[in-house]
Amino acid sequence: MSTPILPNPGLGTFRLKGDTLKRVIHDALALGFRHIDTAQMYDNEQDVGEAIAESEVSRESLFVTTKVWHDRLAPASLKASVQESLEKLGTDYVDLLLIHWPSPDDAVPMADYLTALREVQQAGQARHIGVSNFTIAQVDRALEILGPDALLTNQVEVHPFLQNRAVVEHCQARGLTVTGYMPLAVGKVLEDETLKGIAEAHGVSPAQVALAWTRSRGVVTIPSSTRREHLAGNLAALDLTLGEDELEAIAGLDRGERIADPDFAPAWD
C-alpha cells in the first residue's frame, strides 16, 4: 500500500483562536493552503469548523487534522472525544486523526487506545490515523499492534536546532511520513546568522530557508503565522532549493534544543 501524501505545507493553528484564527484560515485558503492542523487541546476546533464552513473551498478539497489529548485515551473516552471534535469542526470525518501524546507512564495501554483509534477509522470518522510525539520504540510498538501500513505519520518537533534525525530517518524507513511541528523554532530561526546568510544569498527570509530545509528532508511542515505575507512566504519556501553546502551548514546547527517538552513527555531518543 502506498503511503498517502499529506498536503505540504499545512497550516498550524496552535495558540490561534477566534476571529484571528478565522482570518488566518481564510487568508491561507485563498493563498492555496489545503491542510489545516488543529487539536482538541488547542481549544479552537469550533473556530476552525466555522471558518471552513464560511469558506468557498469545499470540505472535500481540504485535509483536516485533529488530535486526541492524552486525558482522553481510554477507549470509550477516545471515541466520545472524536465525536465531540467532529461536532465542533462541523464535519462527519477528519482526514487525519492523531494521538497527540503517548499515554504518560503507559497509564492507558497502547494497544487499547490504538485499537480504539483504528475502530474510529473503520467507522469512517477518520480517513487516516497516526501518532504524534512518539519515540522510535513507541513507533515500533504501534506498528506491531496495528500492522506495518496502519499509520500515516508521526508528528514531531523538527527545526534546524532540533533536527531529530534518528526519529525522522527511522519513521521514514518504516514507511511513515514525518510531520514536523514548530519548524521556525518559535521565531528563533529569524535570528540565526547561518540561516540569515543563506537567506540573503537567495533573496528570501530565514524562515523560508528553514522551511525549504525541512522539505529537503522529506518532512511535511505545519508553520503558523497570523500575517498573510508570511503565509504566502511559507508556501513559496517550498519552491526554494538549497545547495549541498547550504544543507550541510544547516545540519551543523543541530543543538538538541527541544521546545515542546512537557513533564508528561516520553523519554526522548
From TrEMBL:
SUPFAM superfamilies: NAD(P)-linked oxidoreductase (SSF51430). The keyword NADP applies. GO terms for molecular function: oxidoreductase activity. Keywords: NADP, Oxidoreductase. It comes from the Bacteria. Its EC number is 1.1.1.346. The keyword Metal-binding does not apply. InterPro entries: AKR, Aldo/ket_reductase_CS, NAD(P)_OxRdtase_dom_sf, NADP_OxRdtase_dom. Residues 11-253 form the NADP-dependent oxidoreductase domain. Belongs to the aldo/keto reductase family. This is 2,5-didehydrogluconate reductase DkgB. The gene is dkgB.
